[in-house]
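Please check what follows.
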Amino acid sequence: MSIIFQHARIFDPAVNLDTIGSVRVLDDGRIDTIAEGLDPISSAADGQVIDLDGRLLVPGLFDMHCHFREPGQEYKETLASGSAAAAAGGFTGVALMPNTRPVIDSPLGVAYIRHHAAGLPVDLEVIGAMTVESRGETLAPFGKFRSYGVTTVSDDGTAIQNTQIMRLAFEYASNFGLLIIQHCEDKTLTAGGVMNEGRFSTMLGLKGIPDAAEAITLARDLELMRYLQQHKLHDPLNPPRYHVAHISTKAAIDLVRQAKHDGLQVTCEVTPHHFTLTDEDLFNAPAKGNYIMKPPLCSKENKQALLEAIADGTIDAIATDHAPHAAHEKECSPDQVSFGITGLETAVGLTITELVQKGVITLNRAIAMLSINPRTIMNLPPVRIQKGEVANFTIIDPSVNWTVKGEAMLSKSANTPFIGRSLIGRATGIYHKGTYIAAPAI
């Protein structure tokens, strides 16, 4: 059945499209007509018409950093529940980190995810582990990953501590054109840490995580990239590509900014919780568990540096680091809490509220950071709102006021510090794989 989206603000930064009009999608899922103006497109008798009443119709959002916990920890999240949460949050695709149980460190794990993802409403891209069991000791089979269509490797949740292994990872990834995503953390500095090291950790009596731990690992990796390029120790057609996960400190931002200036192929992402909260929010929270994650919530000074880097383009993408946990793993003493929070269902609201409404970035850039840039970074096919393209849309109401409610979330877990928070802007539906899915009512 064909479908017509009427009275939409059709918005695609990649092709400089920003117009009021309508879009018709044919039975085969391809865009047939993009008509500007308020006059509706005539519909066939069996066609469906959805009046968007001026809401945004944008390229489907893509989250390049998620944890769905399957296989191994389905009590926290499954591929099905994570996909439902993604669709509710406006994401038509997500990339899954490999730190499941067992770790996705072989083609068998990739095949498992692909098989179980086939009937789900969103695309699930698989990120392979950099090392076997993410132990940082033996490289995973990058070549086999590539033959299975994997574009990216990461040991997210940890960082390769051995510099020689990291060098080999760069060289091996270059041979197969793979992107490396690094969780930058010097674990000798962070062991036992709970929150950002500073006056608030001191007042709470909690072991701190120094923000230098992020920059130290990042500086090592960038120096390796410079060395390999200087001595041409990589595939000449595929220089190393490196992406910094959940960047959170000024020192790390300065390193990325300089690396880009030097011509290294380096990108980075920021999470909504890092550009919204600080360690002072954790200090003031009566229940600490949902404010504890890695990297930890940073100082006000580091948060300001993040906002400046978002504004000037140093930070390329917004990613949620969606990390569901069961209630008992968060409702315990801070030194026993599991790291991470959910984020798929609040990302659009936080981005519009904290960045667009406050003038940090334009709506155009927000959509680019949530949709276009993540796919480009991971070397995935682009999504375009153009005649003949496969329809892949997110529908957003950028002005609706709503309140985050844990009981309304579709994720199996509701470990977020934003429950009860009022936000502006929300995804109200997606169209993908030939199906329109409306977001749950609020």
